[in-house]
Amino acid sequence: MxxxxxxxxxxxxxxxxxxxxxxxxxxxxxxxxxxxxLRPMKTRGSHRVYRRRDVELAVMIRKLLHDDxxxxxxxxxxxxxxxxxxxxxxxxxxxxxxxxxxxxxxDLLAIREQLxxxxxxxxAAEAKHLKTSSAGGQASATPSQVPARNLAGHRTTHGxxx
Length: 162
Hints:
By secondary structure, this protein is mainly α. It has helices spanning 14-21, 25-34, 52-67, 72-89, 91-136, 148-151, and strands at 11-13, 41-42, 48-51.
């Protein structure tokens, strides 16, 4: 089971964690002795209660030992490196997301400005159209029937601007 597909719970019992990780409960107790970062809480009756973070660690330990082929000391060392990398990496994504948000806001403001320009141009074209139709006394197309392409300021096929 991947970490992202964990059940939406805050706490897990050892049997649930063993099922999620794919090991027997005694293996989890052994891992607690070997990997000191894996420290589930205990109830008054000494029952283990795993937090979501503990389950993620157990999944990671299982991957290192069973899938990647690390020995227990090698997995312990690699786990420390991964935890350190994760802690170092938590600051950078925040900065990256802030920069991305700033860029998105700038893009949205530019789009808003372009839309406002187009609306102004549309209003001017509509007013011009109404003025010419009322001066000529002819019933012509209503503003909604005027092609938006011509009102938006796109160049026509003759190179003149509408």
